[in-house]
Amino acid sequence: LVSKEKEKKMMPVDLYVGGAEHATRHLLYARFWHKFLYDIGAVSGIEPFKRLINVGLILASDGRKMSKRWGNVINPNQMVEEFGADAFRTYEMFMGPFVQAIPWNTDGVVGTRRFLEKVWKISDRIGEGEVSTSLQSLLQKTIQKVGSDIEDFKFNTAVSSLMILVNAFEKEKILSRELYEPFLILLAPFAPHLAEELWHDLGNKESIFLAKWPEYDGSKIKEEAVTIAIQVNGKLRAVLSFAPGVSEEDVKNQALLETGVSKQIEGKEIRKVIFVPDKLMNFVVG
Description:
By secondary structure, the chain is α/β, with parallel strands linked by helices. Helices cover 45% and strands 15% of the residues. The protein is built from eleven helices and ten strands. The chain has helices spanning 4-10, 23-39, 76-83, 85-94, 106-122, 133-151, 155-170, 177-187, 192-201, 248-255, 259-265; strands spanning 16-18, 52-54, 58-59, 102-103, 126-127, 175-176, 226-232, 235-242, 270-276, 280-285. Strands 8-7-10-9 form a four-stranded mixed beta sheet, with helices on one face. Helix 4 crosses helix 5 and helix 6 (133-151) packs antiparallel against helix 7. The longest helix has 19 residues, at 133-151.
């Protein structure tokens, strides 16, 4: 059937990304046939895949499954035309945990579009400047987290980390290329078109996708951190760690990604957000 040497080298598949809807016709059939081939000695391993991750459904904004019958389908081409492919793609990564069913919210695409506009604007401030210890530390933490989150399919928190870093970049009058280039490499899997263009604007001749992935320097990561309690109507739902002086916006963005928080807020109106810097955030909902 196949060269034994080549089969042993290539199999098993490192990662199978499927969906609960496709378990019968895709996953079960693939495993059934592979086990049959194993029984007759045609393949070397009993399992075809090392790892399985099921992707959650993107639901319609009304919380139902998208269907022509309900008239609640989102046309990707329309989103790309209105907001751009990168904003659309980044929102799909940011909207929630990869394995959970998440309702669509077009306002979220507006948010990722604004984030990418910030990235574009700060490109005008690239120059030779002194790199503060705190900003270098934040970059190293971001490299560490984004790399780890991509491996774990936690794309939403990876994007959130990039947003926090960009907010810090915005405060700099001159932004060092030493900081901006590794950031663009981290951004590239999420916003490939924008990252590629900005990468070439810096004078790089080869594609950003041929650049070496940044490695974080643990010696530059400051250990100091503050823990902030996240409450919903006064009840503790999460405890998160941040760099001292983190902004209310960054805490809110990260808190809303926490399952324990989002479940308590889902379907309700956030009437007020109480923020005590470096200590507490409380969502008042009803």
